[in-house]
């Protein structure tokens, strides 16, 4: 353990009358963060988390965006559990948030054991004198009542429990016809893993060119995603519709156990009348269902997502003042810490 103590027992049990003193450490750089790897990975292995809680991707975010958000990662440990708050200080914005800059859709705290250890870790953030903002939080990823939760939006999804691949195709026959029409024009579906940096750069550069407000006018963000895909090439799947000379549409997805998350989409405006992007998303969804994978269209309730979705996952935002962070732990517990 980082504190030099003994790893808490798997049951994390403690008598209710015993409150041993939590031990805290904070980490202020990617280099220091490396010390947390075994504990971080142990927590993620023991509970369901998304790819956005993967240690390697968070480490890369700490390295890539250190110039704009300084790591302030809180680690707390006691006999009854441990907690990791992967926070960063955004000095320009005057706030705390979690690692991932603008590129992580789902964020959460990491902890095992008694929720009290998480409360103590959250309270440690108050010492920065800054508010905390976290977007977006999925159901179950934050303890009810710990911090103020505000409705944010929903993540449309298609679940295997809701519909079969065949019924999904029958429900959207027009998109199937679009795909066949594009095939007659010479565009065929292809799949790549994350070992194609040139393709990823092309997708994000073209996405930025289409939208003046795109996040990807920032080259640092593009390079982060290129490097993330290199780190985990099997987790990054890129689907395209292309002929020998051009790409009609592309979808960047993130593969997890039992789920495919649709992260980025792009299409050629010259082929807009054929709906190449939606037709490709439809086909990747159909294939995913056939392979037993749920599909998460991720943050935002755009009409094209709702057209295909069978359910919506509510997402929330945390907004807490420094005073509210300090108040997460009781005065007695704070004094004990």
Describe the structure.
The two termini are 18 Å apart. Mean pLDDT is 92; it is low at 3-17 and 331-337. Strands 6-13-7-12-11-10-9-8 form an 8-stranded mixed sheet. Strands 1, 2, 3, 4 and 5 form a 5-stranded antiparallel sheet that branches. It has 2 domains: 23-151 and 316-336; 160-309, 3-Layer(aba) Sandwich (Aminopeptidase). With 337 residues, it is α+β, with helices and mostly antiparallel strands. It is elongated. It is 33% helix and 28% strand. Helix 3 (55-64) runs antiparallel to helix 8 (219-231).
How is the secondary structure organized here?
Elements: E1 23-27, H1 30-33, H2 37-46, H3 55-64, E2 70-78, E3 81-90, E4 95-98, E5 110-113, H4 115-124, E6 132-137, E7 149-158, H5 165-171, H6 173-184, E8 188-193, H7 197-210, H8 219-231, E9 236-242, E10 247-256, E11 259-267, H9 276-290, E12 294-296, H10 303-308, E13 311-320, H11 322-326, H12 331-336
Helix pairs in contact: 3-8, 5-9, 6-9, 7-8
């Amino acid at each position: 353990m980082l504190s030099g103590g003994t790893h808490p027992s798997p049951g994390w049990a403690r008598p209710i009358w015993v409150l041993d003193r939590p031990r805290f450490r904070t980490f202020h750089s990617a280099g220091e963060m490396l010390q947390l790897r075994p504990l971080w990975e142990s927590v993620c292995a023991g509970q369901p988390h998304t790819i956005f809680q993967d240690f390697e991707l968070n480490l890369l975010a700490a390295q890539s965006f250190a110039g704009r958000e300084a790591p302030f990662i809180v680690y707390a440990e006691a006999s009854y559990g441990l907690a990791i708050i992967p926070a960063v200080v955004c000095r320009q914005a005057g706030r705390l948030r979690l690692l991932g800059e603008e590129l992580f859709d789902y964020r959460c705290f990491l902890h095992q054991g008694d929720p009290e250890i998480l409360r103590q870790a959250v309270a440690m953030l108050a010492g920065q004198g800054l508010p905390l903002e976290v977007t977006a939080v999925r159901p179950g990823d934050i303890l009810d009542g710990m911090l103020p939760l505000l409705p944010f939006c929903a993540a449309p999804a298609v679940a295997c429990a809701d519909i079969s691949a065949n019924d999904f195709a029958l429900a959207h026959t027009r998109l199937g016809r679009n795909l066949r029409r594009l095939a007659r024009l010479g565009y065929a579906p292809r799949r790549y893993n994350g070992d194609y940096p040139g393709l990823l750069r092309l997708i994000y550069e073209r996405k930025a060119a289409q939208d003046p407000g795109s996040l990807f006018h920032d080259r640092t963000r593009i390079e982060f995603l290129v490097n993330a895909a290199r780190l985990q090439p099997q987790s990054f799947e890129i689907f395209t519709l292309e002929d020998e000379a051009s790409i009609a549409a592309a979808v960047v997805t993130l593969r997890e156990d039992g789920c495919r998350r649709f992260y980025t989409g792009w299409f050629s405006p010259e082929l807009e009348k054929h709906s190449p992007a939606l037709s490709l998303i439809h086909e990747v969804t159909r294939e995913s269902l056939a392979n037993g994978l749920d599909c998460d269209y991720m943050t935002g309730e755009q009409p094209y997502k709702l057209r295909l979705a069978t359910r919506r996952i509510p997402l929330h935002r945390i907004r807490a003042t420094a005073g509210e962070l300090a108040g997460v732990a009781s005065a007695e517990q704070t004094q004990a810490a």
